[in-house]
Write a structure and sequence with these properties.
Strand content: 35-45%
Distance between the termini: 26 Å
Helix content: 10-25%
Mean pLDDT: 88
Number of helices: 3
Largest sheet: 7 strands, mixed
Oligomer: single chain
Radius of gyration: 15 Å
Structural class: alpha+beta
Low-confidence stretches: none
Order of helices and strands: EHEHEEEEEH
């Protein structure tokens, strides 16, 4: 079973904004994020795991993780597929950096017959999650 990471999409106002940011970065070259340390469980992630994005206290989309590499100043690059895959919104508290996410706990991808608007609005889900109702 693959292992995944979660990360806050800092500054993204919504899924469309995040998708646009990833497209713009892809036009400039490979899409990657940098981090200080290589995840200890990186072999379980690379090539089969994804980076799940948190927007407004919700896991809302994922980017497949292609590989890990070296970045400037001794940092680690997490190389991502620029294609954003929408997922069923799932409440998730914000955190700094990245965190592991087991495959069994990961939200399902939205099917071809579903759209993000078919579910409860993310803002409402976020408020309910804060209240402990989801």
């Amino acid at each position: 079973m693959p292992l995944h990471l979660t990360k806050v999409a800092f500054g993204a106002t919504g899924v469309d904004h995040l998708a646009e940011r990833l497209r713009a970065r892809a036009e400039a070259g490979p899409v990657f994020l940098t981090t200080r340390y290589l995840p200890k469980r990186h072999e379980e992630i690379a090539g089969q795991g994804s980076l799940y994005w948190i927007i407004k206290h919700q896991l809302v989309a994922r980017s497949p993780i292609l590989r890990f590499g070296e970045a400037e100043a001794g940092r680690v690059a997490i190389h991502l597929d620029p294609a954003l895959v929408l997922t069923q919104a799932q409440p998730k508290r914000a955190h700094q950096g990245w965190r592991y996410l087991e495959d069994a706990d990961a939200p399902a991808d939205l099917g071809d017959d579903m759209v993000a608007g078919d579910m409860m609005p993310a803002a409402l889900m976020g408020k309910l999650a804060v209240l402990g109702l989801l």
